[in-house]
Amino acid sequence: MCELFAMSSRFPTEVRSSLEAFARHGGLEGPKDGWGLAYYADEDVRLVKESEPASGSDCVRFIHDHPFVSGVVISHIRKATQGRMAMKNCQPFVRELGGRMHVFAHNGDIDTVRLRAHMPLRQFHPVGDTDSEYAFCALLERLRPLWRDLATPSLHDRLGIIARFAAAIRLLGPANFLYSDGDALFIHAHRRLQGDGGPPRPPGLHVLARSCAPGQNVILAASVPLTDEPGWQPLLEGELVAAQGGSIVARLDSASGKAAAQFGCVA
């Protein structure tokens, strides 16, 4: 299956070591049908994608030799299940909504026929032909009313819409995804193939909280832990987490249907 990686930090920081470990999964230790990276800079997004394996990519080497800093990063390694190997089908996907750049990456295999039937599109349309990009467009359709005034909606309102969207696509297939609107990073875990030949099952994503330099907090999310350090925590099936400034600020457990109280920095 595809693999996901994301980072949220209080202060812009580089993710060179994490991306190095993640890139090895694209061709050497895992899927090799393309890769992509999106990171926020000055309220815009820089996007790099290739339909070639990440492990041998000159672009990945360039990023390693010329590291960038950012407060939010989303990356994806593709295992093609729907759509041919092409740039347009590589993730992350990026769109503008409400004067902000929005980024999305998905790991799973959604029933596209049922997805199109249950979630028709009006304003946003995919460029490629993957279930993932269609799902992103469907999510933006649902978020669009919140962004009409070009002001950042409340986290509570955004979390509610994203949670309902996640619950709907979980019925159509494995639905791990990362989504950011530049203000918050949303991490949704479901099921994924675990490499033992069995059917998809939890955990779909793991998270790690780091406290680095004084005052610096970082949240990492990945399909599988990227390091041997303690602290990687598997997310529950259907769990939705929101991170801002390197701290988890809200989480929703689908089993209880209740959002946990918001809390501050995570050590």
Gist of the model:
This protein is α+β, with helices and mostly antiparallel strands and 267 residues long. It is built from 5 helices and 14 strands. It is globular.
What would you say this structure looks like, in words?
- The protein has 267 residues and is an alpha+beta fold.
- It has a single domain (3-259), classed as Aminohydrolase, N-terminal nucleophile (Ntn) domain (Glutamine Phosphoribosylpyrophosphate, subunit 1, domain 1, 4-Layer Sandwich), CATH 3.60.20.
- Helices cover 20% and strands 32% of the residues.
- The chain is built from five helices and 14 strands.
- The strands form two sheets. The chain has a seven-stranded antiparallel β-sheet with strand order 3-2-4-1-10-9-11, with helices on one face. A seven-stranded antiparallel β-sheet has the order 5-6-7-8-12-13-14, covered by helices on one side.
- A hairpin with a 5-residue loop joins strand 9 (206-211) and strand 10.
- Helix 4 packs antiparallel against helix 5.
- It is globular and about 45 Å long.
- Mean pLDDT is 88; it is low at 259-267.
Number of helices, counting only DSSP H or I runs of 4 residues or more: 5
Question: How does the overall form come out from the CA principal axes?
Answer: globular
Please, how many domains?
A: 1
Q: Approximately how much helix is present in the residues?
A: 10-25%
Number of strands: 14
Low-confidence stretches: 259-267
Order of helices and strands: EHEEHEEEHHHEEEEEEEE
Report on the biggest sheet.
7 strands, antiparallel
